Amino acid sequence: MKIIVLDGYAANPGDLPWTPLSLLGDLTVYDRTAPEEVAERAADAEIVLTNKVVIDKRQFEALPRLKYVGVLATGYNVVDVEEAARRGVIVTNIPAYSTMSVAQMTFAHILNIINSVDYYARQNSEGRWSRQPDFCYWDRPLRELAGLTLGIVGLGNIGTAVARIAVAFGMEVFALTGKDLASLPEGIQKTTWDGLLAVSDIITLHCPLSDATRRLICKESIEKMKKGAIVVNTGRGQLVDEQDVADALRSGQLAGYGADVLSEEPPRPDNPLLHAPGAFITPHVAWATFDARKRLMDIAVANVEAYINGAPVNVVS
Q1: Which of 76, 135, 166, 227 would bridge with 171, disulfide CB 3.0–4.6 Å?
Q2: Which residues of the chain are under the pLDDT cut of 50?
Q3: Are 228 and 252 in contact (CB under 8 A)?
């Protein structure tokens, strides 16, 4: 059985073994695959694994032997699942492998902004502390998280993990969620969108991207926030209007924006958030801790093995 990995480098740049997957079939791993290379590279494959390489109707038509597509991520929008279903192709994803890693990055951004960590570290590397007459200095407000209000948009695995961390910090937590009030973890209050905008000192985004959530954070919603609010986005870049966020940072309506995602990745050099004051952008690495990637690899192998055994799991098609 021929197994092709189209773009294995991001999930496994060489610090994890492909051996367990190779024991399940004739394995070929490509670091990266351009769209025009998919048909040739996967021509004889029954099993294809992809992270960000798109498998759409055109690719399915070029790959008649394809029976299984394993997405090396939780989001599976890179695969036309409706076309896969029409053709009887099984598509699986890898749920919940990076929950704690993404929650951790969410708070890395929050703590960096609220404590000005990057700001002071950069200044002191240039000698500012060494020039001070006192043992310490600060020229920005210093605040505790305890007592601040965190608004969480989306209360799935990651949103719930973020909420629990926030409660441990002593924050008041509100959530915009479809879950009923009785099922919410202790310490989390359900609210409306306008209610969340009005009360939150910090808003963090953990909802799926859809027509309803695209540009959720925009000029209109920012104007409803507290002046000096902070927004953190470890979900999808398209959840925010990037120009509107950059403008709000410059005007002071937003005090900070921390994001691990942008609307286009890699971003264009003229992306407005790359040079906006108070914007801190990490290169989509929240999911990429060694621990999370090891779980990803283990689940990917288990998904393929389950398919081969005739009992596929984590099926999304």
Answers
A1: 166
A2: none
A3: yes
